[in-house]
């Protein structure tokens, strides 16, 4: 009886191979699909990370010269005429929205004069200008936050997807134990290996996605503060020079 037990153990131990690629190729279809989905999710997340990095870097490079030009310009008309040189700047786009709204107000019936001899018109309806600036800022924020939800979703769900592969691999290991009636390492190891690979791939997809999401969210908040500050400055300039007190 002892000889039969040893023979069974020896036959099973021959098939043990705990290499990563061997474990993946020998995994069940469900585990392989789980790993494939995690790898594809990770590739898409890295593409989003590179895209967002370029987008924010481009905005920072474009905003700095526009802001310098804005404070040195003699009039809002001069700034608007130079818009073609600052098309990549989010601050320039906010200024353009505010300037066009200011011209709409000037062309509307929201204009009054202090006296008949006063040639400088005064405007009313600064709320319209404030709403236009806020809308332009919101559009810029929405563009910067676009696809960031994919990073957040990957960071929060990839570990659970990997856990699903883990559970499935452990279930397969227990099924093999039941089928062979042998609880040796040769029977349990392949299933455990599949389980660990699924967990590792899930964490490998989730950790960079979470770090990148927090990083870009911080960058978006900084840009939001910068745009809010610029909008407030532009609104104050407009109120001081064009609106009734």
Estimated share of beta-strand residues: under 5%
Large-scale geometry: rod-shaped
Rg to the nearest angstrom? 31 Å
Mean pLDDT, rounded to whole units?
84
Largest pleated sheet:
2 strands, antiparallel
Output the structural class.
Answer: mainly alpha
Helical residue percent band = over 70%
The number of helices is: 8
The span between the termini is 103 Å
- Tally the beta strands: 2
Helix and strand element order: HHHHHEEHHH
Query: What low-confidence regions span 5 or more consecutive residues with pLDDT below 50?
Result: 1-14
The strand order across the widest sheet is 1-2
In short:
This protein is an all-alpha fold and 245 residues long. It is built from eight helices and two strands.
Account of the 3D structure:
The protein has helices at residues 2-13, 20-26, 29-72, 76-81, 90-107, 126-145, 148-180, 185-242, and strands at 111-112, 122-123. The protein is mostly helical and 245 residues long. Strands 1-2 form a two-stranded antiparallel ribbon. Helix 3 packs antiparallel against helix 7 and helix 5 packs parallel to helix 8. It is rod-shaped.
């Amino acid at each position: 009886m002892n000889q039969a037990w040893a023979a069974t153990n020896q036959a099973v131990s021959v098939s043990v191979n705990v290499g990563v690629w061997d474990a993946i190729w020998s995994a069940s279809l469900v585990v392989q699909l789980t790993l494939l989905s995690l790898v594809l999710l990770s590739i898409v997340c890295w593409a989003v990370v590179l895209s967002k990095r370029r987008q924010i870097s481009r905005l920072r490079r474009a905003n700095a010269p526009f802001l310098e030009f804005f404070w040195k310009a003699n009039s809002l008309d001069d700034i608007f005429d130079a818009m073609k040189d600052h098309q990549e700047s989010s601050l320039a786009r906010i200024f353009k929205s505010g300037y066009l709204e200011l011209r709409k107000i000037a062309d509307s019936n929201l204009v009054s004069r202090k006296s008949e001899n006063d040639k400088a018109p005064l405007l009313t309806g600064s709320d319209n200008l404030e709403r236009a600036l806020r809308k332009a800022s919101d559009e810029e924020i929405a563009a910067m936050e676009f696809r960031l939800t994919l990073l957040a979703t990957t960071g929060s769900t990839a570990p659970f997807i990997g856990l699903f592969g883990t559970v499935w691999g452990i279930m397969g290991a227990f099924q093999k134990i039941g089928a062979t009636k042998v609880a040796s390492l040769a029977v349990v190891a392949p299933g455990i290996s599949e389980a660990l690979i699924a967990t590792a791939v899930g964490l490998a997809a989730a950790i960079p996605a979470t770090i990148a999401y927090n990083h870009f969210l911080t960058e978006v908040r900084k840009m939001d503060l910068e745009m809010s500050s610029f909008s407030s400055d532009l609104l104050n300039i407009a109120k001081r020079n064009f609106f009734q007190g």
